[in-house]
Write a structure and sequence with these properties.
This protein has about 400 residues and is an alpha/beta fold. It has three domains: about 140 residues, Rossmann fold; about 140 residues, Argininosuccinate synthetase, chain A, domain 2 (Alpha-Beta Complex), CATH 3.90.1260; about 40 residues. It is built from 13 helices and 14 strands. The protein has a five-stranded parallel sheet with strand order 3-2-1-4-5, sandwiched between helices. Strands 10-9-8-13-14 form a five-stranded antiparallel sheet. The radius of gyration is 26 Å and the shape is elongated.
């Protein structure tokens, strides 16, 4: 950074690391700091962040604590689930999808408050630094970005603790040593990594899991629920209409109760290394199964198969931080177009970590019982038509087989 910032919007959790960053900004640059704390449904009390910021000299008007739960689910989680997006076949992108919203709100506050810089607390080893900064630049190409973990001179956790003690920053007793693992959480998921999880050959300790009970401890009786959809988005559970965030909260409760949504993944980070994460996405795992069930009955084969081909590319864009890119927006337009008739109701059975799709219905159903039945279809489908269909599709195979029989397949 060639010139020191005058006013910085800091993504501030109120925890030790971002409190150290806050003080470091004040000491290093002598700049005015604005704190922004996002409530994305992480399940923590956020008002202490205000108290801590005030104690560190932040003006009351420079403290933003925003409840973004509805926007998060409505404008980020739901569009992603319309695509059935999973990274590397299994990861439901819970951390990835939160970053563009945080970036967006930081830029909005920077514009509102006349700040010339934004700051995040992501390390130089992970994906989040990329996601935050691609978001910043995708919304304001001229913004200054401060990434303390890449810039400061601290070499160890001890250095950070010493800095905190020198400046009177409160340190919880368990922060004086290494934390057992690192946690990120929001309404969609929780993510745990590092320390006790760094050996991929060792099973994750049960205490790591915070969003679900163990499947073997789940109820011995299955539970059946219905999820209603409107144009690809879930809108009701058991016939009760709900807002996006409320619906996902309720699905999380079902998932927690039945031990649904655990994932142990050794993934490929965008920056090049492999890392091991323990993810819990209880409500999202239920939602994905339900959405795919809704598409089974309402989506044409060609559209459905094309969606499945596009999905890995879409998921990779989100994982790598390209939510605000034109290619993600192009894919979203195609995906959203496919969802016009993805409306109706799906019935699911939840049981000991499993989700079993047991029924689906829609006023826009493409399923025709009169065509598919084994009974008399009264002329709805002429089976004799299949002969010509098969012969035309077999034409090139017959020609190839004729040559192979005459000359030998490997000649």
């Amino acid at each position: 950074m060639t010139t020191a910032p005058k006013k910085v919007v800091l993504a501030y959790s109120g925890g030790l690391d971002t409190s150290i960053i806050l003080k470091w900004l004040q000491v290093e640059f002598g700049c005015e700091v604005i704190t922004f704390t996002a409530d994305l449904g992480q399940g923590e009390e956020l008002e202490p962040a205000r108290t801590k910021a005030l104690a560190m000299g932040i003006k009351p008007e420079n403290i933003f604590i925003d409840d973004l739960r509805e926007e998060f689910v409505r404008d980020f989680v739901f569009p992603m689930f319309r695509a059935n997006a999973v990274y590397e076949g299994v990861y439901l992108l819970g951390t990835s999808i939160a970053r563009p919203l945080i970036s967006k709100r930081q830029i909005e506050i920077a514009d509102q408050m006349g700040a010339d810089a934004v700051c995040h607390g992501a390390t130089g080893k992970g994906n989040d630094q990329v996601r935050f900064e691609l978001g910043y630049y995708g919304l304001n190409p001229d913004i200054k970005v401060i990434a303390p973990w890449r810039d400061w001179d601290f070499k160890s956790r001890t250095d950070l603790i010493n800095f905190a003690e020198q400046h009177g920053i409160e340190i919880a007793t368990d922060k004086r040593g290494d934390a057992p693992f690192s946690v990120d959480a929001n309404l969609l998921h929780s993510s745990s990594e590092g320390k006790v999880l760094e050996d991929p050959a060792e099973a994750a300790p049960e205490f790591v899991h915070m969003r679900t009970i163990a499947p073997e401890d789940a109820p011995d009786t299955p539970e059946i629920i219905t999820i209603g959809f409107e144009k690809g988005d879930a809108c009701a559970i058991n016939g009760e209409a709900m807002s996006p965030a409320t619906l996902l909260t309720d699905l999380n409760a079902y998932g927690r109760k039945h031990g649904i949504g655990r994932l142990d993944l050794l993934e490929n980070r965008f920056v090049g290394m492999k890392s091991r994460g323990i993810y819990e996405t209880p409500g999202g795992t239920i939602l994905l199964e339900a959405h795919r069930g809704m598409e089974q009955i309402t989506l044409d084969r060609g559209a459905g198969h094309l969606k499945d081909e596009l999905m890995p590319r879409y998921a990779e864009l989100i994982y790598n931080g390209f939510w605000w890119s034109p290619e993600r927006e192009m894919l979203q337009a195609a995906i959203d177009h496919s969802q016009r008739f993805v409306s109706g109701e799906v019935k699911l059975k939840l049981y000991k970590g499993g989700i079993h799709l047991i029924g689906r219905s829609s006023p826009y159903s493409l399923y025709r019982e009169d065509i598919v039945t084994f009974e008399d279809d009264h002329g709805a489908y002429d089976q004799k038509d299949a002969e010509g269909f098969i012969k035309l599709n077999a034409l090139r195979l017959r020609i190839l087989a004729g040559r192979d029989r005459k000359f030998g397949k490997n000649s």
